[in-house]
Amino acid sequence: MALDGNSIEVIDNFLSEEDFKQVSSVMNDDMFPWYFNGAVADPQDTDNFYFTHIFYRDSKVESPNFNNALMPLLKKLPHGNLYRAKANLFVRQDKQIINGKHVDLTDAPPNFQTAVYYVNSNDGGTLIGDELIQSKANRILIMKENLEHASVGPTDEKRRIVININYILNDLTAPTGTTVLE
């Protein structure tokens, strides 16, 4: 798959230094609650695992860290309807693991987009087709379509942390399960 600016956008230094430090501090705090998931993209693949933290789903804020960790990102993203927001943590492995390819929402409505914000730098990333978008601190990947992609775990750092935000861009009515971002 050949990618162009119509499919994805990669922005380095997405947040101001102050906002980046705030988000990074929250996400890297020893007391930040992470929850074990025994499969990544394919429920049948029980060899791989990761940890998640849900910020928002089913039209509800699910995390007391929503304002400090997520709002700086939401304020800079295009206006739309928030569908889901979560953080993912992958731990270092001896070899690089490419998890199953997937889309974030099957039967996605028009204008569905995914933003992947990289909290820390490591040799992991997001694989779209044959292209690896490298995990680089304060970088954001915006998929302007419901693109099939796969997470790639790190081998050089203890953890890879991303914030995954799913939203519907510029929809005038909020579909069930979404909240308008202002």
What features would you describe in this structure?
It is a single chain. Strands 1, 2, 3, 4, 5, 6, 9, 11 and 12 form a nine-stranded antiparallel β-sheet that branches. The protein has a three-stranded antiparallel β-sheet with strand order 8-7-10, with no helix packed on it. The N and C termini lie far apart (34 Å). α1 (17-28) runs antiparallel to α2 (66-74). With 182 residues, it is mainly beta. β3 (50-57) and β4 form a beta hairpin. It has one domain (8-180): Sandwich (Jelly Rolls), CATH 2.60.120. The chain is globular. Residues 171-176 have low confidence and may be disordered. It has helices spanning 17-28, 66-74, and strands spanning 8-11, 35-37, 50-57, 60-61, 80-91, 112-118, 125-128, 131-134, 139-143, 150-152, 159-169, 179-180.
Question: Which structural class do the helices and strands define?
Answer: mainly beta
Shape descriptor reads globular
Number of helices: 2
**CATH homologous superfamily name?**
q2cbj1_9rhob like domain
Write down the overall mean pLDDT.
88
What value does the Rg take, in angstroms?
A: 15 Å
Any key phrases for this structure?
mainly beta; 12% helix; Jelly Rolls; 2 helices; 182 residues
